[in-house]
Write a structure and sequence with these properties.
Length: 140
C-alpha cells in the first residue's frame, strides 16, 4: 500500500535510511530536518507499507523533478516496493507538468542497476562522483 508520508512516519523512515547497505548517509548534516520537513509538507513524500509497517519511502521535488530519495528496508528489497514508489512519484511529477525526472546515486551500486533496468538513462558522473540518471515522463 502506498500513501503520503505523515510526521508519525519519520522515526521509521529514519530507521530505514540508516539501515541501507549502499548510499549510506555518512554525513547527517547533508540532510537537514528543515529539508525533510519541506519534502513532507510541500513536495512528494510517499511511503510503502506492508502489514501496517512502513517498509520504504521516496521523496521527489515537484519544482525541479529531482527524485531526492528512494529507500527500502533491506529485508523488504525485491518485493516491488521500490518500483511502486518510484512509479507513483514519476506519475505525480508528470501531473505537475514535468517532461523529465532526474536523480543521482552511487555509480556502481545496485541502485544504479535498478534505475538502468527500469528505463533510466545514465548521463555520466556529477562532480561529486555520483551517477546522474534521467527518465522521460510521458510519451517520448
Amino acid at each position: 500500500m502506498l500513501r503520503a508520508a505523515i510526521p508519525a512516519d519519520l522515526p521509521r523512515i529514519g530507521v530505514i535510511r540508516q539501515a541501507v547497505k549502499e548510499n549510506v548517509l555518512r554525513d547527517p548534516s547533508k540532510v537537514s530536518d528543515e529539508e525533510v520537513a519541506w519534502y513532507m509538507e510541500q513536495a512528494i513524500f510517499l511511503v510503502s507499507e506492508e502489514g501496517g509497517e512502513v517498509v520504504g519511502f521516496t521523496c521527489a521535488n515537484h519544482q525541479t523533478a529531482l527524485i531526492w530519495a528512494l529507500f527500502i528496508a533491506p529485508d523488504h528489497e525485491g518485493h516491488g516496493h521500490g518500483r511502486a514508489l518510484l512509479d507513483a512519484a514519476l506519475e505525480r511529477l508528470a501531473e505537475k507538468g514535468h517532461r523529465q525526472a532526474y536523480l543521482t546515486t552511487g555509480a556502481t551500486t545496485r541502485a544504479a542497476r535498478f534505475y538502468r533496468q527500469h528505463g533510466w538513462r545514465d548521463m555520466g558522473l556529477a562532480l561529486d562522483g555520483q551517477a546522474v540518471f534521467v527518465k522521460p515522463l510521458g510519451p517520448v
